[in-house]
Write a structure and sequence with these properties.
The complex is a heterodimer of chains A (248) and B (302). Helices cover 40% and strands 24% of the residues of chain A. Chain A has 248 residues and is of the alpha/beta class. The termini of chain A are far apart. The model of chain A has no long low-confidence stretch (mean pLDDT 85). Chain B is built from 13 helices and two strands. Chain B has a two-stranded antiparallel sheet. The A-B interface holds A 48-50, 69-71, 73-75, 80, 82, 86, 88-92, 95, 98-100, 102-104, 114-119, 121, 140, 142, 158, 161-162 and B 159, 161-164, 166-167, 169-170, 173-174, 176-185, 237, 285-286, 289, 293.
Chain lengths: 248, 302
């Protein structure tokens, strides 16, 4: 579904992502892990067209989307969340979902209705998403007034609003307690059961090991291992680069 | 009913409101423009030429002036698309000065009834006589100004409630994130700057016809700075914000002469204080949200 071919991004002399190739299959929950600064978030940003690649290619469903503008990437069916929560604080919870939802769903309708439609349009799907995120009673609140956990959930709901086929989750468990992490794991599995493919970039090991089908490990921008969670756990290169220090 | 002074003040408030709304639109998409007076000027000239020299009817001349100003907005929007923040602000300032200096040398005159009519460089553009010829009083013209202002305001307020309104606010708050919601940020910015040119243009056309005379130096940077400041004072949460700014400055400070010669000092101080205390103005998004919720609750309670 998603293929990265020798993807590289150099910032000056720093090889943030270096010759990275991987394939995420349809319906998979794919984990991308690695120590701080190993290039995980950069990879997500390259896929989404936030900044240009140095070399290599991003192919999504057989379509080359390397360096495509972000709004095209979204239209192609890729959604994402951010490592640091990024919401439109001055818009309501509902409005945060509204724009993304319509940008894809109503592409068939004319631009006039798509732009100038009122608040009522497509309320059902956004309502469903709000329920999924546990925010149904907060719809008309300004996003900035939400509690931290609510903001994270809203971010995920917003990523879903454009009905992506592939969801990129950039450290969704950051700052969550154990209970919230287990709720998150439930949500991620539910999404996969709805036919979504997920690329999970994460630090929290219980989450990654618990929900993913396959994992790739990055270190200094390069892939040092790939395999099922059990294989990754016992891989000696990974242990020294990453897990070893975490276990100690 | 109204005395001449009051009519004059209200007319000025109405016309400058168009610049304030124009600057406000650009502020909504996250950019600062010191150059909206350029569109005011472009339309003042274009509409004056249409009515005084080509014999167009007044309303057609206003629409033509606004359309030309919108086109000028497009002309500014495309090359400045890739710059933002301070650089965008400087570019708008430079653009406006270019327009003003171009008008200083722009001469296009024809002979009418043995007299030369039309823009004559730094001498200005005299005899835009439509309101005398049609025998329109200042009070009647004030109604025209207010009607056009109300229509413009209604359209902007309506757009703010649509999805497009949410898109523009997203672009203003975080363009990278907006792009990731499937928003074509470039298109939104170009369209907004062009629309802002158009809005300022309506005001410019009215100005030219009310005063019957325009000259390039009227459209200097202070006009744009005021237009910009009104949104920053009044608030960026709703299109009523810039109008509140106009009302505070012209309606209170200037017309009551409360601070007489110190008015500009008070005005500048007001801007400075507000930028620190309320960076998005009196009617900012949070204030608008609270007011709306209060009104809805009251409505539901009835």
């Amino acid at each position: 579904m998603l293929e990265l071919h020798s993807l590289s991004k150099h910032f000056g002399g720093v090889r943030a992502v270096d010759d990275l190739s991987l394939t995420v299959g349809q319906g998979e929950i794919f984990g991308l892990i690695g120590p701080n600064g190993s290039g995980k978030s950069t990879t997500v940003n390259l896929i989404c067209g936030v900044f240009p690649t140095t070399s290599g290619a991003v192919v999504f469903e057989g379509q080359d989307i390397t360096d495509a503008p972000s709004h095209r990437v979204v239209a192609a069916g890729i959604g994402r969340t951010f490592q640091n929560i990024r919401l439109f604080g001055d818009l309501t919870v509902w409005q945060n979902l509204w724009v993304a939802q319509n940008s894809v769903e109503e592409r068939q309708t004319g631009w006039l209705t798509r732009w100038l439609g009122g608040q009522r349009r497509g309320r059902d799907y956004a309502g469903e998403l709000l329920k999924f995120a546990g925010l149904a009673d907060r719809a008309n609140e300004l996003a900035r007034n939400l509690a931290f956990g609510e903001q994270r959930r809203l971010e995920m709901a917003r990523a879903l609003a454009a009905r992506p086929k592939l969801l990129l989750l950039d450290e969704p468990a950051a700052g969550m307690n154990a209970e919230e992490v287990s709720q998150l794991a439930t949500r991620i599995r539910a999404l996969r059961d709805h036919g979504m493919t997920i690329l999970l970039v994460e630090h929290v090991m219980e989450l990654v090991m618990g929900v993913t089908d396959r994992i790739a490990v990055l270190n200094f921008g390069q892939k040092i291992a790939e395999g099922a969670p059990a294989e990754i756990r016992s891989d000696p290169a990974v242990r020294t680069a990453y897990l070893g220090t975490a276990d100690a | 009913m109204l005395d001449d002074h009051l009519i004059g003040v209200l007319s000025n408030m109405g016309m400058i409101s168009f610049i304030a709304l124009s600057a406000y639109l650009v502020l909504v998409v996250g950019e600062i423009s010191f150059g909206q007076q350029a569109f005011f000027a472009v339309s003042a000239y274009a509409s004056g030429i249409a009515s005084a020299m080509w014999g167009w009817p007044f309303l057609a001349a206003v629409l033509w002036g606004a359309a030309v100003a919108g086109l000028a907005g497009l002309l500014l929007a495309i090359p400045t698309l890739r710059i933002r923040g301070l650089y965008f602000a400087i570019a708008t300032l430079a653009f406006a000065e270019m327009v003003r200096l171009a008008l200083e040398i722009f001469t296009y005159q024809v002979e009418q009834d043995g007299e030369l009519v039309g823009p004559n460089g730094s001498e200005g553009f005299r005899d835009i006589r439509y309101i005398y010829e049609a025998d329109i009083s200042a009070g009647e013209f004030l109604l025209v100004i207010l009607a056009l202002l109300a229509a413009t305001l209604a359209i902007i307020l309506w757009i703010e409630r649509t999805r497009l309104g949410a898109i523009l606010r997203m672009v203003g708050e975080d363009p990278v994130l907006a792009r990731l919601q499937g928003v074509n940020v470039n298109l939104a910015k170009i369209a907004t700057v062009a629309a802002a040119g158009l809005v300022a243009g309506i005001g410019g056309a009215l100005y030219a016809h009310l005063n019957t005379y325009v000259e390039p130096k009227i459209f200097n940077v202070m006009l744009g700075v005021h237009g910009l400041a009104y949104g920053l004072i009044g608030g960026l949460g709703t299109a009523f914000g810039p109008l509140l700014g106009v009302a505070l400055d012209i309606g209170v400070l200037e017309s009551t002469r409360a601070f007489s010669g110190y008015r500009m000092i008070v005005f500048g101080g007001l801007v400075a204080v507000l930028l620190i205390v309320r960076p998005r103005g009196l009617l900012d998004e949070a204030a608008v949200y609270r007011i709306r919720r209060f009104l809805l609750r009251k409505h539901a309670g009835d």
